[in-house]
Design goal:
By secondary structure, this protein is of the alpha/beta class. It has one domain: Alkaline Phosphatase, subunit A, CATH 3.40.720. It has 13 helices and 19 strands. It has a seven-stranded mixed beta sheet with strand order 4-5-1-9-13-2-14, with helices on both faces. Strands 8-7-6-11-10 form a five-stranded antiparallel beta sheet. Strands 16-17-18-19 form a four-stranded antiparallel beta sheet, covered by helices on one side. β4, α6 and β5 form a beta-alpha-beta unit. α6 packs parallel to α7. The protein is globular, with a radius of gyration of 22 Å. The N and C termini lie far apart (47 Å).
Length: 517
């Protein structure tokens, strides 16, 4: 058995999980190697498109990608008939810029949607995938968890049907909405996008999956799973300094309203393990919901529909002292967060595992090419068909990065400063670069900003445990130059920047309670 996209096997990481895992998994889940005619451009002209986002689930916690726990049994089975991209990467550590990249095929540094507080409205000169498909005769609909998929945001332009669900709505609401819409729109071409925040914190026990992995018995568990914890500092001991947000109190006449209800907490190793266990249970519950939905579609519909399952980003659990994807903190761009699942099921094409560096900006041009829908504007993403058909690499590097909270009218410890957070990666090395500005309003600190580099030997250290930046300055210099070139070309790619627009206060407050901002 072999799999597409591996021109030189010794080039890849020699760990069992990364090197042999895909081969074993392909056999276990019934996946077959692609054999037959190439997947031609335009082969699926007139077909439907269904895209499902399982956001906040990275490959590191999916049994589909070699995780030791059986967290995704339904997707494991479903993926046997899909193209499973082993090495897909996201351009940022949070949903809004990634969602915009997904629907525009532009990197965050190009489309410039990198803040929630302002500059959140995408330029109307940038055409989105739903706009393009709508103009080509597709009925379009999106059923999402709100917040970074609010209907008022520019990247949602083109969806004719899109209820404005409250922030952090889950699949138990959005999947029935999607199913109801499908029951009335099965005939004719459609583009349907379905999303839910099921695996986002707080990691409350999932109904029907409680206790599969989690237990407090015999453990020093001090956390309340109803809260969302964000930590970002290395500890001298095994504990982690973290914070959570309490709901803002109503204003009192004559008194200043507190800006943020912030509470400090110390997470023990058992706390981290417990929250990780709950997270894995939430993934199992989400896997079941998505699996049931996919299983309900029926052969007639599936035979004329391209189905995509992906995630915008993953989550972190105390790696290098970082808990969650807190603010512009060095470490939000570890592979735990940026290595994401991507699966595409094409009618009539056998399932296979595909190796080769892939970026989420590549999804839109690939799908439009398959559907024979013209992409008139110049984009940064590229079609993945050469990789699928011949194993020809389409990306020498994957990269990403954004400014993070360059405007913060309120201070919250994990987000109490602004930064530039960037990364570049191939199969050998990964560089994480950060510039931190402690004063979010001034954008600078006394004595200048703090600049840091992390360099990891991906082949020998896939877990990104040992920072080699100090000992390998020549590699840091080389990758830094490549990153500057890539990001530099991105920043000049789009002439029209976003329109300033402030996010409603109720949405901001809801986000804080879920550990964001």
């Amino acid at each position: 058995m072999s799999f597409r996209g591996v021109p030189n096997m010794p080039h890849f990481t020699p760990s069992l999980k990364i090197f042999y895992g895909p081969l074993l998994l392909a056999a276990l889940i019934g996946g077959s190697v692609f054999a037959g005619e190439p997947v031609r451009a335009g082969r699926y002209k007139g077909y439907n498109l269904l895209v499902i986002s399982i956001t906040n689930i990275g490959t590191e916690h999916m049994s589909l990608y070699g995780y030791g726990r059986k967290t995704t049994p339904e997707l494991d089975k479903w993926a046997g008939g899909a193209l499973v991209f082993e090495d897909a990467f996201t351009p940022a550590s949070w949903t809004l810029p990634v969602a915009t990249s997904l629907f525009t095929a532009l990197s965050p540094s190009a489309h410039q949607i990198v803040e929630r507080y302002r500059d959140t409205l995408l330029s109307e000169k940038i055409k989105t995938m739903p706009e393009i498909l709508s103009a080509s005769g597709y009925r379009t609909a999106a059923f999402t968890g709100g917040l970074d998929y609010r209907v008022s945001l520019g990247h949602m332009r083109g969806f004719a049907a899109a209820p404005d669900n409250p922030p952090f709505t889950k699949f138990d609401v959005t999947i029935p909405q999607a199913a109801d819409w499908l029951s009335k729109n099965r005939n004719g071409r459609f583009f349907l996008f379905v999303h839910g925040y099921d695996a986002h914190p707080p990691f409350l026990p999932s109904k029907g999956f409680e206790g599969v992995f989690s237990s407090t018995a015999g453990r020093n568990v001090t956390v309340d799973p109803a809260r969302t914890y964000r930590g970002y500092r290395e500890s001298k001991d095994a504990n982690i300094t973290a914070y959570y947000h309490e709901p803002r109190t109503p204003p009192v006449e004559g008194k200043k309203r507190p800006s943020v209800g912030e509470v400090k907490a110390i997470l023990t190793p058992d706390d981290v393990t417990y929250l990780t266990d709950l997270y894995d249970e939430n993934i199992m519950a989400e896997d079941r919901a998505v699996g049931d939905f996919l299983g309900s579609l029926g052969k007639e519909l599936l035979d004329k529909t391209i189905v995509v399952v992906l995630s915008e980003h993953g989550e972190m659990f105390a790696k290098h002292g970082r808990f969650g994807r807190a603010g512009g903190i060095r470490g939000t761009l570890y592979d735990d967060v940026v290595h994401v699942p991507l699966m595409i099921r094409l009618p009539g094409v056998q399932g296979m595992r595909v190796r080769g560096l892939v970026q989420l900006v590549d999804v839109m041009p690939t799908l439009l090419e398959l559907l024979a829908v013209p992409l008139k504007d110049k984009v940064q993403g590229t079609s993945l068909l050469p990789l699928v058909n011949t194993g020809k690499p389409v990306n020498e590097f994957v990269y990403g990065g954004t400014k993070y909270n360059s405007y913060m009218p309120e201070t919250y410890a994990p987000y109490g400063f602004s930064s530039i957070n960037e990364f570049i990666r191939d199969y050998n090395w990964k560089l994480i670069h950060e510039i931190t500005f402690p004063d979010p309003k001034e954008g600078k600190a006394p004595g200048g900003p703090e600049e840091t580099f992390e360099l990891y030997d991906i082949k020998g250290d896939p877990g990104e445990a040992v920072n080699l930046a100090a000992g390998r300055p020549e590699i840091v210099k080389d990758l830094s130059a490549k990153l500057r070139k890539l990001l530099g070309s991105s920043r000049g790619f789009v002439k029209n920047g976003p329109t300033p627009r402030e996010t409603p206060e109720d949405v901001r407050e809801k986000a804080k309670q879920h550990g964001y901002w």
